[in-house]
Amino acid sequence: MTTLRQLRFLVALSDTLNFSRAAERCHVTQPTLSAGLKELEDQLGVPLAERSKRSVMLTPVGAEVVRRARVVLNDVADIEALAHAQAGTLQGDLRLGAIPTVGPFLVPRALGLLRKAWPDQRLFLREELTDSLLAGLAEGRLDLVVLALPHAVGSIETELLFEDGYQLATSIGHALAGSAEVTGAKLAESSILLLEKGHCLQRHALEAYAEMGAPPGDAFSATSLPTLISMVEEGLGITLLPQLAVDAGIARGHSIILTPLPGACPRRVVLGWRATSPHARRFREIAGIFRQARASLRATM
């Protein structure tokens, strides 16, 4: 009979592709993990992994078993969480994921408030792109995610934290610096610098004004907001910075001009969790704390 322990062994092997690291993750010895996986293969009657002295690779059926095992383990975790919720407790670590254009600016502000509200709760933060966060939530690797809409999020529950507008970042002396009449058409005529593909902010920035349109295929893209700011400072183009990042001081110390864009369509920053989670009430309380943290940033501008 297939056991949850065997499925956890297989998922750990899939994540690490290394028997030693998989055993460490499962808090067992390597022989114990290897024996458990061999038993699982014998019970199912198919090989789940190809082993050599230098590498481990899942077989096609092994990959499919892992996909289904994640669903099973996630459901079991929710059952256990339901029992804890009925007992009035949220046990274990709270695993939060956040997109890179929100997490570094919002979460540190919220940590003190979270610790004050639940001193025994440990919070672990991961910064990942939106699609990776959603996958982590579906697989049970994450409990909560902070991301920005619009974006297809499936059936997860979300609660709005705040709307995040933009400011235009230009070099000193740029024609649009300090302009009160910035439009999408004027932005489209400029060299716009954006985050690389995969960051939802790239699409959100382009959708801030309906008439902006897509940048040319050879447009510069960056992996982070600080890199974009440095490029703007060198006069290589302009960019749109989220108001959250601006309020957190991301442009402090840089020789650039920030121009408010009240006419830009804001992105919506939300907190999301699995619809099956029994901790919706606690998560909504956490959403309230994130809103407090965002408000405190405005107050200290």
Can you offer a commentary on this structure?
- This protein is an alpha/beta fold.
- It folds into three domains: 4-85, Winged helix-like DNA-binding domain superfamily/Winged helix DNA-binding domain (Arc Repressor Mutant, subunit A, Orthogonal Bundle), CATH 1.10.10; 90-163 and 267-299, D-Maltodextrin-Binding Protein, domain 2, CATH 3.40.190; 166-260, D-Maltodextrin-Binding Protein, domain 2 (3-Layer(aba) Sandwich).
- 45% of the residues lie in helices and 19% in strands.
- The chain has eleven helices and twelve strands.
- The protein has helices at residues 4-16, 19-26, 30-44, 60-86, 103-117, 130-139, 184-188, 200-206, 225-233, 243-247, 280-299; strands at residues 49-51, 56-58, 94-98, 123-127, 144-149, 157-164, 166-171, 194-195, 221-222, 239-242, 256-260, 267-273.
- The strands form four sheets. A five-stranded mixed β-sheet has the order 4-3-5-12-6, sandwiched between helices. The chain has a three-stranded antiparallel β-sheet with strand order 10-7-11.
- A hairpin with a 4-residue loop joins strand 1 and strand 2.
- The longest helix is centred in the N-terminal third of the chain and has 27 residues, at 60-86.
- It is elongated.
